[in-house]
Task: inverse folding
């Protein structure tokens, strides 16, 4: 993954800095999807590739489908 810089309101930047890592990752994923839909010619294909890569990465790190389902259920 690569990083980009986006200018935001000062209060929003402060809230981001004090948010938990989990919350920042959750929001980052939502932003990633939104940007893909806006900028990529084939957002569905690109997004599916992203999900496949993500699935492989978390599997290598030991996150099981049951654990993932439990995380998603909490939302």
Result:
């Amino acid at each position: 993954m690569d990083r980009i810089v986006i200018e935001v309101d000062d209060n929003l930047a402060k809230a981001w800095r004090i948010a938990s890592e989990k919350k920042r990752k959750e929001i980052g994923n939502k932003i990633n999807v939104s940007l893909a839909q806006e900028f990529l010619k084939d957002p569905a294909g690109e997004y599916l590739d992203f999900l496949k890569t993500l699935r492989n990465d978390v599997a290598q790190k030991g996150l099981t489908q049951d654990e993932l389902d439990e995380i998603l259920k909490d939302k």
Q: What stands out?
A: The two ends are 25 Å apart (CA to CA). Helices lie at 10-18, 21-39, 43-60, 65-73. The mean pLDDT is 84. Residues 40-75 form one domain.
